[in-house]
Description:
Blueprint: E1 6-12, H1 35-49, E2 58-65, H2 73-86, E3 89-99, H3 106-115, E4 119-125, H4 129-134, H5 141-153, E5 158-165, H6 172-184, E6 189-194, H7 202-205, H8 213-229, E7 233-236, E8 239-241, H9 248-254, E9 258-262, E10 267-271, E11 277-281, H10 286-293, E12 306-307, H11 310-321, E13 328-329, H12 330-337, H13 341-353, E14 357-360, E15 363-366, H14 368-372, H15 374-379
Parallel strand pairs: 1-2, 1-9, 2-3, 3-4, 4-5, 5-6
Antiparallel strand pairs: 6-8, 7-8, 10-11, 11-12, 13-15, 14-15
Helix pairs in contact: 1-2, 1-10, 2-3, 6-8
Amino acid sequence: MTLPPxxxxxxxxxxxxxxxxxDFNSHERFDPSLxxxxxxxxxxxxxxxxxxxxGRDIAxxxxxxxxxxxxxxxxxxxxxxxxxxxxxxATGAEITLESNPGSRDARRYAHYxxxxxxxxxxxxxxxxxVQLKTLGRIHSSSEAFDAIGLxxxxxxxxxxxxxxxxxxxxxxxxxVNDIELAISTGVSHISWYQLTIERNTAFWSNPPTLPxxxxxxxxxxxxxxxxxxxxxxxxxxxxxxxxxxACLHNLNxxxxxxYLAIGAGAHGKVTAKDGQSxxxxxxxxxxxxxxxxxxxxxxxxxSHLNPIPRKEQLGEFMMNxxxxxxxxxxxxxxxxxxxxxxxxxxxxxxxLERGLLTWVEDRIAATNLGYQHLDAVIAEFI
Length: 382
């Protein structure tokens, strides 16, 4: 069996302030004195995972959080140098770092470029001052524009803007205005996703009033039209890109690829040569994580690999691959899961009959109707 492509996810869990909608593993009040200790833990964590690469190059790297741009340029350079010393990184590999406009710094952006970061993802969320305050963001609209401009000035060609819609009291016109402002910056990728209220967030305890379903539908329709008119193509549920600007790291997730994962709360997936897939995760609390990986004697992490039962792998695959607007070729599920065409057709038969999936030549995808009810489509495979 041919092993899938391999990526690396690196989690830096601190933010200056926890946003009320955020359920990610992020922690307030970063202490810069922890930077070096956390770096050493990341290096030891990765050292445990080298064998899982099974000789593969790292195709993409994504440094997420939290707010990774709280770390210095020297720290990011040290981190990437350590990755290179342990694992081969593919020539031209996409290396992304998430950044918050509230922690922008032109010299720091330049240092990130020098360290090897070639794609920047900037968490804008909205250009509306009132919405930024409602969302608990620490930056202003002008600071968001400044951050994007600074990134472009130091040479970043690939920049993503994270943008939310369906915000409290947001009208369709206000949502489109956010999109138009994002487009006006000249970035090549926009992640445009709907605000949802998640458990264990401040919004869950004290929920704001969000637009009703009909208003959200209008926002979606007008937003899609605006992005398409500007030359952006939707390639995933919430991802829009100009030609050849899709996020390769996320594509590997959605195509059921493998990914090593280091950092507090990081989750990874690896495949053995017999085709069995495994998931693993790291402890969430940063202090526990550093204590675990900065000890002199490191315990083997083999016991942390949890096999994905064969009967659940198709559901896992479909949960990811059907997010892609163009779907996937049968050869992908054949190579990832070892499934025969007859077996997959049997699983898809009901959805094909109901017009929720389409299978043309070798490509399987959700129809427009299926894409609107994607959760229900995926549930058929779980």
